[in-house]
Amino acid sequence: MAWIESGRWVSDHTTNKNGYPVRRRLGRRLSTGIGLLFLLMMAMPGHVQGEVPVVIGVATSLTTLEGRDSLLAARLAVEEINQGGGVAVGNRRVRLKIEAVDLKDAQADVTVEDAVARLESFLTTSRSMAVVAGPFRSEVLLPAMDVIARRQIPMLSTIAMTPAMESKIMHQPDTYRTIFRTGLNTRYLADGLIAAMRFLNQQYGFRRVFIISQDAAWARSTVSLMLKLYFKPTGWQILATRHYPYETDDFSVALAEAARKDAQVILSIFDTPHSGQLVVQWKARRSPGLLCGFISPMMGPGAWKRFNGRIGGVLNMIFELGNIPSQTVAPASRFYNAFKNRYQREIEAGHGPAPTYESIYLLAQAITATGSLDARRITAALEGADRMGAMGRLRFNIGHQVIFGTDPEEAAVACLIQWNERGQRVIVYPPSLAEGEILLPPSSAP
Description:
This protein is an alpha/beta fold. The chain has 14 helices and 22 strands.
């Protein structure tokens, strides 16, 4: 075999066919066959060795259930894309990379200013060309939008739910054009819960509701919308509305009041780690009324063991399909099972992971479609995105909010699940996804 050599010529102590000594150069040497192969690989459009990766930042409250699972979902999507060769940027392929920061904005002792400062510091020191997940709290998301706007990089928010985000985008589109949301907002949450309440009214004649919610902007906004758009106009009897601080873990007073007032539905809206005690206390006292709404610790399959099986009968909203598998929407089950296989556990969060996973794919598709890492071109591609994914069909409205509905062929979907007494989560609403009927405890009979 011939050699590409460098250095000085020396005798090889061998001879050629004419009897003359063969000489070679000292130093590093490469087979011409290997060398040519290496040069060809470097020239190929698909070559990724040595490329600086495209960095996507995951910035949220990483100690929360939603934040932790969302980060894992983002990493899963990046691994899948990289296994396929990375993203196409013009005539080359580049790998993706995740960099993460804990904004700590779910913690009661962390101010809005501190959380926003953490985001700004992260963007200053990292090489993130885009951000996914975003602030956990709506109170932090709104000022964080200004940080993103100054840098003009894409952000796909998946957890904070205030509809004021869309208002800012529509009123100042040039300023906030790079900001999107792929997760549920409070308007769509209210729509989903209203649809569930309407279903309970039509199926069982329920008309008396007792409302217990977290004292946070997103929860108050959801309650306000439901009162204004549904409960009051349709003649429901609103027995009481009670808001509780983040750290509350005793709801016995409210449950006793609901029992005295003969509530048929106890509407609950919480994302705090202690709010699972509401379900345990409801189950223990056998309160009249069907407990229905959103309680974050009740989302995942681990809740059954964590609460010793004392949660059967509760109805809970899964904000985005894909955070639970579906018998009718194959991409939802593919994502859910891929997460389970990768991390050897199931998704526990009902809000955040699926839209974060889809956000990575939306960014990758936008980069591929434009052949560019230019934020303006990626933003334009996101505005025209139309993807069938784990949540259903993903398209953005004029306020850069993913459109939600009840048909996964037309929109992203949320779903209502019920825990049965065997420790299973059963999708009971909407009809397009339902895998069983709502089971009423004896005390909830109309």
